[in-house]
Design goal:
The chain is an alpha/beta fold and 329 residues long. It has helices at residues 3-9, 62-69, 92-101, 119-129, 135-148, 165-177, 195-212, 223-229, 247-252, 257-264, 305-309, and strands at 14-26, 32-46, 51-55, 77-82, 85-86, 102-105, 183-187, 215-220, 232-237, 240-246, 315-318, 321-323. The longest helix has 18 residues, at 195-212. The protein is globular, with a radius of gyration of 21 Å. The two termini are 32 Å apart. The chain binds iron/sulfur cluster.
Length: 329
Amino acid sequence: MSSEAKQQRVKPLLEVRNLQRYYSVRSALGKAKGQIKAVQDLSFDIYEGETYGLVGESGCGKSTAGRTLLKLVEPTGGEAQFNGESIFESKASRLRTIRKDLQMIFQDPHTSLNPRKKIGASIQETLTIHNVGAKRERKQLVIDLLKKLGFNEEDYNRYPHEFSGGQRQRIGIARSLILNPKLIICDEPVSALDVSIQAQILNLLRSLQREMKLSYLFISHDLSVVRHIADRVGVMYLGRLVEEGPTDEIFSNPRHPYTKLLLSSVPTINEHEKCEKIEVKGEIPSPLNPPSGCAFHKRCPFAFDRCMKETPEDTVVNTKHKVKCHLYS
Ligand code: SF4
């Protein structure tokens, strides 16, 4: 069965609807200055075994969205269902159980590991928190997993600083895998690594996905990385999803001018892969004071009157591809 046909029949593993995360901004004297809408009305689904890539420039809200889904930051509004169960409405004890299945890999493997703890103890701590197995079993589970990720038994007793950046990210992956999760939120997991190590980590994530039937929400500003790993891509601009579709289609036939901008900024030596270059004016506007209508209109070379007044809603390009742009509505 094709993955499209499967998706029409199968319920998503993660359903996100109208997710919002706003921050109030106050002056030094405590006076309200406004709100930063870091994430606005974000909706998407992730299916079992699928990788969904969330892309956009730094500050577009993609990492905030990932952290909000795990309730590491509180949502301002919206809903997220994991396996049919509300993440945001679950009580603390239930949320802890959900988090066994919903894990995270952080961007910086160096700061996400406690420098004073041996890596075996750091990974084992997750098992202890979730009350999995007896003490000796836990140690063996960690050693088995470390071996699976290319370490040896002695590494259990080493400290994070004794490993390279790529090895530390593999330790971060081990920590996210130890509870046998269903979905992992990967927040820029390779951006702190050298290009050659990036490829190793991406290949590792793919082979673990096949073996363990994992799903990933893969957050990245790097489109070439997302192209390598994602089945579908969502493009974010100033807190909103502006385009979503299958990876091949987004890369071969992007519709939103912002997606075209991102793609035309990706360096390529292959003439056939070069996409339409678009000239964009200005910098990303302040999220504290975003432009009216389409938030991209001050930079968009195709903007017309309507763009300044009306916020575009989803327009369906085809059953799998949608875009928020007045050019298509
Ligand atoms: Fe450009 Fe208008 Fe489309 Fe926004 S809605 S991307 S301003 S054409």
